[in-house]
Design brief:
Layout: E1 2-3, H1 4-9, E2 15-19, H2 24-36, E3 41-46, H3 49-62, E4 67-72, H4 78-91, E5 97-100, E6 108-110, H5 112-119, H6 124-130, E7 135-137, H7 148-163, H8 165-168, E8 173-180, H9 203-222, E9 227-233, H10 240-243, H11 248-261, H12 272-275, H13 277-283, E10 294-300, E11 306-312, H14 317-346
Parallel strand pairs: 1-8, 2-3, 2-5, 3-4, 5-8, 8-9, 9-10
Antiparallel strand pairs: 6-7, 10-11
Helix pairs in contact: 4-7, 7-9, 9-14
């Protein structure tokens, strides 16, 4: 099979789509991709059109000849996903790499007692890196009747891949789907009986663990069609999502401590550029050679050197397949609901 890297070597410009590309790790990834290959066709798929255009202009300042296009996409809305997918299929006949990077952690609540207790303990690094025992979120419901975190972080991306299958699965070619997961992805937060995490208080952790499972399931169902899926962990990165967890003045106080701790741990990547390391590294690999059971971690040494390291995920095929089947059933239900709403409006 001809990989996307092989396509580039043959003189074909690669087509890359990044969700959540207007800021943070997504924007840093786009900058790194263009610095590596300014001939690629880069698609920014973002919810906020104004911010997406600002990101596009920023990229064009440093790469004036780059081909950067925009798509309006709110992955938390099935209608938006279907519209964007249709537009993408009208504009392109193939995708070489699809980065599923958009994600939310709404209304994060910090257990302050656990935070102060852990801050000066031997578990401080683990606490900051994973958020375990520290963070809960208050979820909401979307216009499609789905839990917002589940819809945005997982289900919308699932629908997007399904819709873009003709562009991703092409005879004789291999393509990549790459998930931005998290060290906060924990099996203990996920349940097949509560797929959308309606009963729990850690929807972010649940959705990220589900994305690890879905990456594994995608490989089982799509490898034979030339599509390969991987998951990454960006490490602890200071983005808008991270800054929203605690008051700004508190980050000002503890940032010097975090930069000091980084000397002793490689998971404190801290900057979006460093956090995008594994995303960028995967772009240059042969997807067939990657380990479907591994999550690829962005790491930064105490001296500031970036590198990528695979670590085995806490996932199994049976749970991944069960999740995949449940998502197919939910997709069918949601599509029928949208069809009925359309018919009612047309009547």
């Amino acid at each position: 099979m001809k990989s996307s890297a092989a396509a580039a070597a043959a003189g074909m410009s690669r087509v890359v789509l990044v969700t959540g590309a207007n800021s943070g790790i997504g924007l840093a990834l786009c900058e790194r991709l263009l610095s590596h290959d300014d001939q690629l066709q880069l698609c920014l798929a973002c919810r906020n059109g104004q911010r997406a255009e600002a990101a596009r202009q920023a990229l064009l300042v440093s790469h004036p000849k780059a081909q950067v296009s925009l798509f309006q996409l709110d992955v938390g809305s099935v209608r938006s996903v279907l519209r964007a997918a249709q537009e993408i299929k009208q504009r392109y006949n193939r995708l070489d790499c699809l980065y599923l990077n958009a994600g939310i952690m709404p209304n994060p609540q910090v257990d302050h007692k656990a935070f102060y207790k852990g801050l000066f303990s031997s578990k401080a690094i683990h606490m900051f890196t994973t958020g375990e025992g520290l963070l809960t979120q208050k979820d909401t419901v979307t216009s499609d009747g789905l839990q917002q975190v589940f819809a945005t972080n997982l289900f919308g991306h699932f629908i997007l891949v399904r819709e873009l299958e003709p562009l991703l699965c092409r005879p004789g070619s291999s393509t990549q789907v790459i998930w931005t997961s998290s060290s906060n992805a924990r099996r203990s937060a996920f349940s097949l009986d509560d797929l959308q995490h309606q009963q729990g208080k850690e929807p972010y952790s649940s959705s990220k663990y589900a994305s690890d499972l879905l990456s594994l399931a995608f490989n089982r169902h799509y490898n034979s069609k030339g599509l390969y899926s991987s998951a990454i962990c960006p490490g602890l990165v200071m983005t808008n999502l991270t800054y929203g967890i605690l008051p700004s003045f508190f980050w000002t106080l503890i940032m010097p401590i975090m930069w000091f701790i980084r000397v002793f741990t490689n998971s404190f990547t801290l900057t979006p550029y460093n956090g995008a390391e594994a995303l960028f590294w995967l772009f240059n690999q042969k997807p067939e050679a990657l380990d479907p059971m591994a999550k690829y971690h962005s790491l930064t040494s105490g001296l500031g050197n970036n590198y990528t390291q695979p670590r085995k995920m806490d996932v199994d095929d049976s749970m991944a397949e069960a999740l995949y089947k449940k998502l197919l059933e939910l997709e069918d239900t949601v599509r029928k609901k949208l069809k009925n709403e359309y018919l009612e409006c047309a009547a």
